[in-house]
Amino acid sequence: MEDVFMWLNQPLFQDSFIRIWMAAAVGTGFVLAMILILVLIRKRKKKEKAKLDEKDPITEKPDPLPILELANLQGIGNREEQQDAFGISRMEHLEEDGLLAVLCDGMGGMAEGGMIAAETAAEMVGMFPWENDSTVADWIRQRSGRVYQQFRGHGGTTLVAALLRGKFLSFWCVGDSDLFLLRDGKLYALNVRQEYKNDLVLRALEGTFPVEEAFFDPQAGALSEYIGKEDVRCDYTYIPFPLQPEDVLLLCSDGVSDTLTLRQIRETMALSPQACCDKLEEEILAAGKPNQDNYTAIVLKYHGKGEGE
After folding, report:
1. Where exactly are the transmembrane stretches of this chain (predicted)?
2. Which contiguous run of DSSP H or E holds residue 29?
């Protein structure tokens, strides 16, 4: 042991005052310090990981979705003027009053179709909210009568209006603008187009003439009902239609539905409302119809209310 102490007490270098034991002590202290630092770093990492685990996004409650999402689209197509019009009630009144969306397609080739469409949409949104849904069909008939008095049947517009109140849908339709529902990946037409072709088909089914003749009649695509007739027949819901969470509604003019296939419409409605509108326009422009009509769409996605609401 005495030999060990003598060795430790020798100079580290020749003529140096630093002894071997001093260098060994410093080295040992350095190693211990490094070990301590590593231990502290590992503890700190464990604490940070524990905090991250507490904020794991997989276990966090996601932000609630809004009850309703909406978006809209409008383009002039290859026409000289825009004769479509639309209006939407104020979103901040959704909980209290519901939401009204209105779309009108002014009749091309008739006097002031765009003006009639714009005034009809504005008037309907302006009178909302109303006390009783049963008064709306009467208002539509009165509106049609006023337009008739002014233009004597030579000016008019279609109309499709959807009211979402709570989890229920009510709608009113005149003419050939469409209201589609996407539910569980399946597409449904909620209204029947009021075209002369459909009247001919009903007559053909009674045996008056072959059914195929109804589709080749030169007047088959003409409107049988429109706002601007002296006495108009409105298609509407007598009982509000219950919606299911994730239902999607599309209100559109025939510039959309006559250009695209039902498959294209179904696939675009599966997207978010804004993405749906963007895709609809992309598909319409890609179709490249030389006589492309004005096109307008309103997309509504109902998420439903969360638990406890």
Report:
1. 20-41
2. helix 20-54
The pTM of the full predicted model, rounded to 2 decimals, is 0.77
| pLDDT higher than 80, residue 60 | no
Q: Which residues contact 2 (CB under 8 A, 6 or more apart)?
A: none
Encode pLDDT of 101-117 as tens digits. Answer: 999 999 977 769 999 99
CA–CA distance, 75 with 53 (Å, rounded to integer): 49
> How many whole angstroms separate alpha carbon 92 and alpha carbon 140?
26
Q: How far apart are CA 209 and CA 226, in angstroms?
A: 26
Please state, in angstroms and rounded to a whole number, the distance separating the CA atoms of residues 246 and 304: 7
pLDDT the model gives residue 306: 45
Strands (E) across 58-141 are located at 68-75, 84-88, 99-105
Q: Tokens 């260098």, residue?
A: 23
Q: Give the Cα separation of 246 and 68 in Å (integer).
A: 9
Taking the CB of residue 240, how many other CB atoms lie within 10 A of it?
16
Among 283, 293, 155, smallest CA distance to 275 is for: 283
Q: Where on the phi/psi map is residue 151: left (φ > 0), alpha (ψ -120 to 50), or beta? A: alpha
Give the length of the chain.
Answer: 309
Contact (Cβ atoms closer than 8 angstroms) between residue 243 and residue 271: no
